[in-house]
Amino acid sequence: MKRSVIVASAMVALSACAPAGYDGANTGAAEPVAVAAAEPTAAVEPAASAVPEASGVPGVSASPAAPGEQPPLPADVQLTDTLVGKSVARMGKVVTDQEGFILYRFDKDSDNPPSSNCVDKCAAVWPPALTDGNPQLEGVSDDKVGTVTRQDGTRQITIGGWPVYRYIGDKKPGQWKGQGVGGTWFVIQPNGKKNLECMPTGTPKAVEPPAGSY
User: Residue 206 in contact with residue 105, Cβ under 8 Å?
Assistant: First the structure.
C-alpha cells in the first residue's frame, strides 16, 4: 500500500509540472534518435566569407554570398524576429519567440566560442532560431543576445553565447516537451543558463524528423 501511495504521489507531481497538452508519450529510457552531434559547424560573428557546398537547412541556397554577407533566405524559412523573456507557471524563467514557442539550448553546443553542433537530422527536429538582423527584445538583455554563423551561412540567435532552437515536438505555444530530451536539451533562461525546473522522469526521446526533411 505504501509503495502504491508513493507512485501515485510521483505521478501527481509530474502532471502538476507538465505543460499544457503534455501526455507523457515522449518519455522513455532510450537516447534521442535526432541529437547526434557532428564536429562544430559554426563560427562567432563576424560571419566567415565562405559558404559550404551543401546547405544544412532545407531549401537554403548553397550559392556563395559576398564576403561578410548572409546568403538570401527562401520565403519558407521561418525567422525569429522577437525574443520574449518571462516567467511562466511551473517552469519559471523561459524565453519564447514571437509566436510564444519556448526556446531551448543544447549541451553539445558551445558558448565560448559560440558554435552549433545540431545539423541535418538534428536540425529537422530542433529548428535553429534564425535571424536576418537584430530581433526585438522583451525581457531579454541586449548584452546577452548575439548571433553565430551556421555552416550554410545563415545566422542563428544566441543567448548567453548558446545557440537557441525550437522543438517540433511542441505543438502549441507554451509547451516544453523538449525539456530534458536525451539529457542534453533544456529550456533556456533569459541569461542563457539552463532552466532545470520540471525535469521529466527518465530520459525523454526526441520525436522523429519529418519525412524528407534532411
Answer: no
